[in-house]
Sequence to fold (197 residues):
Amino acid sequence: MSDDYGFLAPIYQLISRSVFGRDLIYANQAFLEGIAGKKILIIGGGDGVAYREFRENVQGEYWDLSAKMTQIARQNLAGSSLSVQSGAWPGTGKFDRIYLPFVLDTLADDEISLLLSKIKDALLPKGEVVVSDFFEPVGLKQRFSQIAMIRFFRISTNHRRKDLPRIPQLLVKAGFILRQEKIWRKGWIKSQLYGIS
Ligand SMILES: C[S@@+](CC[C@H](N)C(=O)[O-])C[C@H]1O[C@@H](n2cnc3c(N)ncnc32)[C@H](O)[C@@H]1O
Fold:
């Protein structure tokens, strides 16, 4: 099976930090505080670096499509009660909270809608979803950077989109309601916590 993020996986943090400092790490970590004792699912967690400092307090499942990303995540999350799996989440299990860190922008709109519907079915009562991702860029510099970033990922990871998904609209259409959000870079990067309406 092809591994779209296999080439980038060993240098992903280097690239991310040289462009965004620790902001993408902070966005991956958003809404993880106070999660001890709850069952979580992380889809598209990448190399697991962002979750390393939480590894002793988290339990549940961790899925990433990239074999190389998963291999690195297993090292970073050694000793954690998270079960780290390579591949697409099969839609099984029940969770208190499901995290989607910078993964929705890699999917087509219809794939996002299908995933959100499976996620809705997998939430325990009062369950929540955390989406961390890129939103509407603010100002020319961010707009150009966004275009350059998409081009870079289209070449290096077989990224299929040419634009950003309209995440809030897709979540609302799937029956979720926004409860809280944290923002970085004037709102270009956000972590949003959604419940079920
Ligand atoms: C842009 S990277 C983000 C990685 C990490 N969350 C971070 O911010 O450092 C997207 C990740 O999502 C994974 N991915 C893409 N589609 C996926 C899917 N359907 N299920 C699981 N992982 C997926 C990719 O393999 C990649 O590791």
Notes: The radius of gyration is 16 Å.
